[in-house]
Amino acid sequence: LDEQQGEFLFARPGQFRWEITAPFPQLVVATGDEVIQYDPDLLQATIRPASSAVGNAPAQVLFGGGDIDEAFNLEPLARSDGLSWLRALPISAEAGFAHLDIGLRNGLPQQVEILDAFGQTSRIVFTQIVPNPDLPSHAFVFNAPEGVDVVRMQ
What we know:
Elements lengths: L4 E7 L3 E8 L3 E6 L2 E6 L4 E6 H4 L4 H6 L4 H4 E9 L2 E8 L6 E9 L2 E9 L4 E5 L23 E4 L2
């Protein structure tokens, strides 16, 4: 299993910051309008419009980027591991994943499991959840460090 660790912040609608610290640093920032992926090892940042970068992606379920009922069929799953589970099945065949399972405790996501179109499962476990934190506005801003190539996709 490949394992990554980092910090994840989000604010609805459509803003998040996923800073992976181990084993290799990576940063993904969604501003609401754009999604920026930054790889410090490659000294490259890629910027895409949020509408094409997220679309029906799993992020839409958690971060409020659109009408969930138009993009997904939702069904409850059996309670497991002390969590209440919900499955999101994408309506579009172009979603890029087969389903997304969300494990909730006290109304907060604790775990997300994504089965992609190739049969691979990604599991995201949230720890130290702080509901409604006072996040600084610059958390969802990316300023490319000097020497970084910035590629803007349309």
